[in-house]
Amino acid sequence: MPPILEVRDLRVEFPTRRGTLTALDGVSFDIAPGEVLGVVGESGAGKSMTGAAIIGLLEPPGRIAGGQILLSGKRIDNLPYEQMRRIRGREIGAIFQDPLTTLNPLYTVGRQLIETMQTHLPLSDKEARQRAIGWLEMVGIPAAAQRVDSYPHEFSGGMRQRVVISLALCAEPKLIVADEPTTALDVSIQAQIIALLKTLAREKRTAMMLVTHDMGVIAETADRVAVMYAGRIAEIGPVRSVVKSAKHPYSAGLMASIPPLDRKVDHLAGIEGSMPRLSAIPQGCAFNPRCAHVFARCRIERPELLETGSTRAACWLYDPASEKQAPEVMRHV
Amino acid sequence: MASALARAFDSDLWWSFKRSPVTVASALVALVCILGALLAPWIAPHNPFDLATLNLGDAFKPPAWAEDGDPLFGLGTDDQGRDVLSAIMYGARISLLVGVCAVVFSTLVGVAVGLLAGYLGGTADSLLMRIADIQLTFPSILIALLVDGVVRAAVPREVHDQIALFVVIFAIGISAWPQFARTVRGSTLVERNKEYVLAARIIGISQVRIMLTHVLPNVIGPVLVIATLNLGFAILAEATLSFLGVGVPPTQPSLGTLIRIGNDFLFSGEWWITIFPGIALICMVLSVNLLGDWLRDALNPRLR
Amino acid sequence: MFAFILSRILQAIPVMLVVALISFAMFAYVGDPVSIMLGQDFTEAQRTQLIKDLGLDQSFLMQFSTFIGNAAQGEFGLSYRLSRPVAQLIGERAPATLELAICAASIALVVGVAMGVYTGLYRNSWLSRAFLTFSLVGVSLPPFLIGILLILIFSVWLGWLPSFGRGEVVQFGWWSTGFLTWSGLKALILPAITLGLFQLTLIMRLVRSEMLEVLRTDYIKFARARGLGNRAINFGHALKNTLVPVITIAGLQLGGIIAFAIVTETVFQWPGMGLLFIQSVGAADIPVMAAYLMLIALVFVGINLVVDLLYFLVDPRLRVGRGAAGGH
Known about the structure:
By secondary structure, chain B is mainly α. Chain B is built from 13 helices and no strands. In chain C, strands 1-2 form a two-stranded antiparallel sheet. In chain C, strand 1 (170-172) and strand 2 (175-177) form a beta hairpin. In chain C, helix 6 (126-140) packs across helix 8, helix 10 packs antiparallel against helix 12 and helix 11 crosses helix 12 (286-314). The chains are: A alpha/beta, B mainly alpha, C mainly alpha. Chain A: GO terms for molecular function: ATP binding; ATP hydrolysis activity.
């Protein structure tokens, strides 16, 4: 089946007073219909930026400086505002992080649902209202027929995120970009929201790009996962392979920092140092200053995504040509 | 406090100053206005208060570039034969004096009240802030007018003429203190609960000293901004009061007084008597306001 | 709703009492009303009689409550300057000020909000920059100078519009209106612009900054992400949220118009309450000043009440009890 979303070599730049910053560089991945792609990484790695670029809502002065984004095989990164607007909500839905601030406080949730549906679908007021109630029921809002006329502040945080999900889904898009949909919620609510997203995505055959820094959420929900570091994809592959046997030293470190549930540990492995600022990304592999396996080539040449078997990783360790060069420090490979 | 000022005027501020041509221009205009006003007795072409040099024959001369202008009187003369340019320079002196004094006065009152309210908290705080709230409900020009009117009624006319300048300063100053008090109170509340203040209290430093040495330096930045923005307001308020005829005494005409006097001759065609003082007033206030705007943005972009 | 209005009215009472106290203190303690009212020649008996008539021999509380009782009935005694009942003087001049204030407020609101929305939406267009520069000049120009400049241009040089007075007025009972005659309308133009300009620039700057603030919020981004049209986002979602803070400040600003009318009325010799007030300040005519102060306080309290009600209508968060608001 052809992918619903293809991102090809995406590059996003921010012109600033002190020169142009490259926030995303050479990001490529695709998402198949009905597939959930998890995107993980530290804050500032470019996860949310990728989502914003796909829905065409990069914060100015940020701009797409290279590459392509294709939705169902058609380019959408260069569409005029009005055409892109018709795609937003209709073909790509979005879920934001904080449900307390994503809903307009002055309109009832019903009105916000109805206006979204009527923007994209030819519905009468009555039909739209019926559907709005239906959507609220579907996302698990009790007494939806009455709650449809409530204002956002009359819902709890978890319920509001359910409303946000219904708003993202109500025009039946083929793809959902969910940016940290559970981060702002209580831990007890997070699981419910994830379960809801998962169920709805499966029922509606909606593909999803799930941006989060929570590996637990990814392991639970995603089919495949992309690990991002300093505006680039470090590794991408099936979720099982990445979690169990990450190939890139960064993703390996990231996975090692997840506390296991089945046994007690005294110490969690961390990664020394911190992610470079966008203005000071080192030459070669961006991870090289923190990498335990660094060797000369890593400091000069930037690695592309290379086949490693189960996943693809941007790491010279997996280039057959590198084998002649011995890593400076060999701990385990 | 010196260190706080030094911190405020570090290189960032200077850099943002040089980068903004409007700011540099308004600083120049402000400088010209202030120097012209301060040095009026020495650099003004005539002394408008020296009756000996006044000649009624010189009355109503249009500006020098007009058809029957006199090069002696660059901006023309008024009904008494006074040189308009000199009158403006002397008038700006009074305007500036009243403006600066009023701002200093309201700053002192406002900062003191704000520190007290923020530091003491409780009933004192709510009482002081309630008063500030009630006063803020009314336009300050109305407050200033009322204060002026009450003083006028309370003291005999001869006494009033003598103290009129102080009355105006007091009236304008008292109408602007709540703004300072509110800002200072807010910052004080934040500072008061910080650990270093707590520590200072525990080691037994007196309350007054804590306020002056620890809390005050931290609130000085916003106060400086409000004071600058208020200088423009105070000059305008004085001009308005004087224009309404209840401001400074006619023996010490400010820009507002000159505009009021000139206004009577607008219809007979002698527009310069009122328009030039008006332009001077606008230049002064606009440049001060622009400087204040810049200072606000430069010190704290989020401060409104 | 009713409880809400009632609580607001109750909150306004202390403010009115404080203002009344100040007015009363001016009345009773500033200057010497007795000698002012008696003039030059009087006997001791006349003096005692007047003190008794004015109630000045009674206790403070008695005097104050009498004052409030009288004030509530619009009774403020005689003007020192004109020896006529203050209520009558103010009543004669109120229509002129109110008509002027209504026109100025309408100009300020309509034009100010429109310009604010425009400059907020099209931040970088040259027209926005022009509006902003204009607003800065508007804030720095004192109203009396604006008036003088307008008179110079439109009355003296062009001769299009009258420079003073109300023109012909039509009398409806005690209300006199300039709205119904051509000359009355023409006379309104310059004063209304003068009075409204300052508030206009303030409202414009306020709407602009609020608009910019709101356009940055998550719910506007989310509205874009839902694919809503620009019109719906800008005028439905953004403008309505902008209204909440704008209503408060604009409300207070409009109250300011009544007070600033003092200056405008002086420039244009507009026969309203402001002109009466400034003449009274000059002549230390305390009863008129006290009455005017009370009246202005009443206007402000009224405007605050209207502002609160508008809030109530615009923002649903205020309509429910506080308890329901925060259920996380």
